[in-house]
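subagent[fold] <- orchestrator: predict structure for attached chain, return tokens only, no commentary.
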Amino acid sequence: MNDLEKKNKNFEKNFFEYGINGFAFIKKELHSEDSYKTDIFSVYGADGTLLAAFETKDTALAAILQSGLEPISLH
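subagent[fold] -> orchestrator:
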């Protein structure tokens, strides 16, 4: 198993464990590094724990659903 496969395996395990209460939400955030800026879509567990970040909202939502969590809206 290469490093990327290990990271993905750990991500899946941690994503489920931190969201164990069953809910997660997506927050659009601005990521900046040096002179590069881009929007990212961060996924948080209902307790506010950062679980992951994605380039698109659709990908973030798919990760929530694939992990068996229920997406919640904060608006």
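orchestrator: received. Logging for downstream: The chain has one domain: 3-71. The longest strand covers residues 23-33.
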